[in-house]
Structures are given as structure tokens and as C-alpha cells.
Design brief:
- With about 350 residues, the protein is α+β, with helices and mostly antiparallel strands.
- The chain is about 50% helix and about 15% strand.
- It has ten helices and ten strands.
- It has helices spanning about 5-20, 30-35, 55-70, 75-90, 90-100, 210-240, 255-280, 290-315, 325-335, 340-350; strands at about 105-110, 125-130, 135-145, 150-155, 165-170, 175-180, 185-200, 200, 245, 250.
- The chain has a four-stranded mixed beta sheet, with helices on one face.
């Protein structure tokens, strides 16, 4: 498998990087409007539904650049939901929802995972069958962007626990409260009180829609983390070339060079693990092991990169005026989203029969 980016993919990445440069303080709503106008949300949507129909890896490249710029947007949950609808939705569902995503509607992801281990929606959601569908009750924890710029919610909670459905965020019975968390993106507790879901279920087609939707969100999150780790590496190398001690740049000292080299190794390994998972997931292949491998590798690598970046920067890296702390907060929060490294290593071990 050749993971070298094509010329078109390099163009996508370069264009996104130039557009996002210097936008770390941009308002989410305004930035999201510009992202929609550029057609980024339509990248994962087939052409027949108003999108571009690009590969999933192409979409991950945009997520990587968003992470590199340190920007918090609803891009990941929205694109993950759109990819799930593309794979499992009926023609009517695709026409209704994919066209809406291409047109700028954002989607939040709510997963009913007992115990809250997944970080994005883990809670005590229950789904009760009704005459024309089912009703959802319970409280979902740590739902990013819910009830802020999110129009729809992909609710991964059905009576059989295998499928998901899209629910309008303005439906009666849905309320939310913003949480004070370490990460940069707005995160909510979302409560469902007898919320009806009728005729909006995504058909699994032999595989769990919930697991596939989570896999898309996990890999996109990994791509964001890779971008963040790359930004920390770039900032650290640049600082090491400017900061002087004993009459020379600190980058001339072997110990600092070793730190930067170790950071570069972590970034490269994290990137290729993510690209491989994105490639397999995009081809419709079984990517269970690759997704868990990517999340385990990237979660630890990003945090190590941030730790070494702080060590090289010294005191300035811990100040509110410097961007480094934002990446550390992102690394800490994202490492826990959709399962931390330990969880995914356990998943791999179980899959291998260890």
C-alpha cells in the first residue's frame, strides 16, 4: 500500500493550510460558514447529492489541517455522520441529509455506550420501541458542539443497539448543558426526554452502524491530532532555532536535537497509522484493527510530542499568551475521545486472542 499523497491531495492540503493560517482566534460560526462555502463539508458527500465524492483520506487531510491550525469546529462529527449516511442510508435519507450537509447543516454525534468510556456521548441512553419507530430517553455526556452550531444529532441508540438515526437538534424533549472541560471545543451534556424517532433509522446492512459511525469519527479525530502534533513540532523547531543560550541557538545542543528528533518520529508514525486506517475505512474494508491501532498510537504520540514541546520551550510554553497550551489541552481531551490508548490496545489484544 502506497500512502504517498497524490498531486490532488497535496493541493487540497496546501490550500486548506493557507486558508486556515492565522485563524486560531476565528469565531466558530463565522469560520464554519466559510468552510461550507469552500465545499469542505461536501467533500464526503457523493456528487449525486450535491457533494464532491472524494475519498475518505481526502477528508482526513482537511481534518488534519484543522488540527494543525488549532481550530475547534463541528467538522469531524458532521463528516463522520455524512459518511455513515452515505454507507447505510436509503435513497430518501441520502437525498434529505447529505444534501443538507453539503449545504452547511452540521451534525453532532451521540453514542449510547454504557459507562461513558467513549468520551463522545457515552451515557445511559435507552431506546424504546413505539408504534412507528422508537423513543430515546436518557442523558448523553461529552457531546461536542451539541446545541451550539449543530442542527442535527446522529443518535446511536436503537432497541437492538446496532443502528443509528438522525434527529433534529430542535426536537421537543432535547435539552443540553455546557460542561467545563479541559479541551478547546464546546462540549455538552444532552438530555433526551421521550424524543421520538420515526422512520429515520440507518439500516446496518450486516454491520453495526454504530460501530462504523464511531470508526469514522475516531479516524477523523486521529487526523486532527496528527495535525496538532505537527504544529507543536513545527513551533518547537522554530523556537529552538531562535532561542539563544550561551551565545548559540538552543537547537545547536544535542539534547534539544534529540527531543525534536523524537517528536518527528512520533508525528510520522502517527500520520501513517492514521492514513492506513483512513484508507482501509474508505475502501469499505474491515478496518477494526487499523482504527484501534491508529487511535492507540496517535493518542500517546500526541501527548509525548506536547510534553517534549513544553520541555524545549520552557516557561514561555506554559503561558496563556503562547499557543502551545491549546495543543496540550487538545491532546489531553482528544486522547480520551472514542476510547483512549489503553482501551484500544485491549481491543486489539482481544481481537488477536491474547
Amino acid at each position: 500500500m502506497d500512502l504517498t499523497l497524490t498531486e490532488d491531495q497535496q493541493l487540497v492540503q496546501t490550500t486548506a493550510r493557507e486558508f486556515l493560517a492565522g485563524r486560531s482566534d476565528a469565531a466558530t460560526a463565522g469560520l464554519w460558514k466559510e468552510i461550507v462555502e469552500l465545499g469542505w463539508t461536501g467533500l464526503a458527500v457523493p456528487e449525486s447529492y450535491g457533494g464532491v465524492g472524494a475519498d475518505f483520506l481526502d477528508v482526513c487531510l482537511l481534518a488534519e489541517e484543522l488540527g494543525r491550525a488549532g481550530l475547534a469546529t463541528p467538522f469531524v462529527p458532521t463528516v463522520a455522520a455524512a459518511s455513515t449516511v452515505t454507507r447505510f442510508g436509503t435513497t430518501q435519507q441520502k437525498t434529505q441529509w447529505l444534501s443538507a450537509v453539503a449545504g452547511g447543516r452540521s451534525i453532532g454525534y451521540v453514542r449510547a455506550e454504557p459507562g461513558g468510556h467513549w468520551g463522545a456521548g457515552g451515557s445511559g441512553l435507552t431506546a424504546t420501541p413505539s408504534v412507528d419507530g422508537y423513543t430515546v430517553d436518557g442523558c448523553a455526556l461529552f457531546v461536542p458542539f451539541a446545541l451550539e452550531v449543530t442542527d442535527l444529532l446522529l443518535v446511536a441508540a436503537t432497541p437492538d443497539g446496532q443502528a443509528a438515526a438522525l434527529v433534529d437538534g430542535g426536537t421537543a424533549g432535547i435539552t443540553g448543558e455546557r460542561l467545563d472541560v479541559v479541551g478547546n471545543e464546546p462540549v455538552y451534556t444532552v438530555t433526551f426526554d421521550g424524543v421520538p424517532v420515526a422512520g429515520q433509522r440507518l439500516i446496518p446492512g450486516g454491520k453495526s452502524t454504530v460501530d462504523i459511525a464511531t470508526a469514522y469519527a475516531t479516524v477523523l479525530t486521529c487526523a486532527e491530532m496528527v495535525g496538532g502534533a505537527q504544529a507543536v513540532l513545527d513551533k518547537t523547531v522554530d523556537y529552538a532555532g531562535q532561542r539563544r543560550q550561551f551565545g548559540k541557538p538552543i537547537g545547536a545542543f544535542q539534547a534539544v536535537q534529540h527531543h525534536c528528533a523524537n517528536m518527528a518520529i512520533d508525528v510520522l508514525g502517527a500520520r501513517f497509522a492514521t492514513y492506513e486506517a483512513a484508507w482501509r475505512l474508505g475502501t469499505g474494508s474491515d478496518a477494526t484493527t487499523e482504527v484501534s491501532t491508529a487511535k492507540a498510537v496517535v493518542s500517546d504520540a500526541y501527548q509525548r510530542v506536547c510534553a517534549l514541546g513544553h520541555q524545549v520551550h520552557g516557561a514561555i510554553g506554559f503561558t496563556a499568551e503562547h499557543d502551545l497550551h491549546r495543543y496540550l489541552r487538545h491532546a489531553t481531551a482528544a486522547a480520551l475521545s472514542y476510547g483512549d490508548a489503553e482501551f484500544h490496545l485491549d481491543q486489539i489484544a482481544t481481537r488477536l486472542g491474547l
